[in-house]
Amino acid sequence: MSQTVLPLISVVIPTYRRPDLLMERSLPSALAQTYPNLEVIVVQDGGPDPETEARLSALADPRVRHVILEGNQGGATARNAGVQAAGGEWIAFLDDDDAWLPHKLERQLALAGRSRFRWPVISSQWFTRTLEGDEPNLHRPLREGEPLGDYLLSRDQPSVRECGLTCSTLLVPRALLLQVPFTDGLPKHQDTDWLLRAGAHPGVGVEVLQEPAILYYFEAGRPQMSWNSRWAYSLEWAEGHYRAGRMSRRAYAGFLVSFVSPLAARTPTLKAFLTIGGRLLRLRPRLFEWPRFLMIWLLPDRLRARLFRRRADVRTGNSAHLKR
User: Where would I find the Glycosyltransferase 2-like domain in this sequence (predicted)?
Assistant: First the structure.
């Protein structure tokens, strides 16, 4: 009886001069997967880093390969480089500051095998890990016919958060990523930008593993590759997707309230308030979006965060911190 040949999964880990996180968090969790047929491609952004190279060489694991990008090209370009170098039928992305639970790839690939879509994009639930503990980030599956932008960026009701998906959750066919790569040079919203463009591709469907498989680390004060507080950039990025038809009116309004407004309100100006408020008026959001919008602008950030945590704790019965 012949043995079944398991498809190769290529794990792509972009990193930028953070050898401790890479070697002590993300890479060990990839190599400890219960799914056996994998390779790991570490994409080092920003040119050679002697410490990272020395520690990878000392690892001496034949499953690990190393790609070096000249100059700091950003996470999107690093992921594309990893896809190009990959030999696997499937690509799984992992940020260097996150970690996987051991069953992540095995259970996601099983879900992909049951998918009815030609190009299944497989995500999962995750735990947000903070100094205060682990908080389950649980979100529902997509509904039949639901626009992906609505699922990612808008709320069904005031007390239920958006169903955001991050790169570290994704398992994607390599053939799809070759047709729909990440947007090179995009400084932020890389995950959502790719999902919105991929979701518009014929035959693509998103499936969500209904159990946590990721440890998503939220460590206040530590710089992350995706952090960037320019609210005007985020506003125009969303406007572009809205005009292209990849973001509905509802999704655009939700993004303005939940993502753009908190950035702008850190250093509030009348111009920013009127600009974002004017876009919201044009979009005619649901009524519950207006109190949220005003609360963001009128309450200090710390008080707003405390109120949010208190409401979340009452709603879920958890006392751990929820990431905003």
Answer: 10-116
Spatial contact of 196 and 246, defined as CB atoms under 8 Å apart: yes
Confidence (pLDDT) at 134: 85
Nearest to 12 by CA among 167, 136, 118, 116: 167
pLDDT at position 314, please?
31
Q: What is the pLDDT of residues 39-79, one digit of tens each?
A: 999 999 988 899 999 999 999 899 999 999 998 999 999 99
Q: Give the pair of three-digit tokens for residue 237.
A: 């990025």
pTM above 0.90, yes or no: no
Among 13-17, 128-132, 210-214, which is the least confidently predicted range?
128-132
Report how far residue 93's alpha carbon sits from residue 195's, in angstroms, rounded to the nearest whole number: 13
Longest dimension (CA), the chain: 73
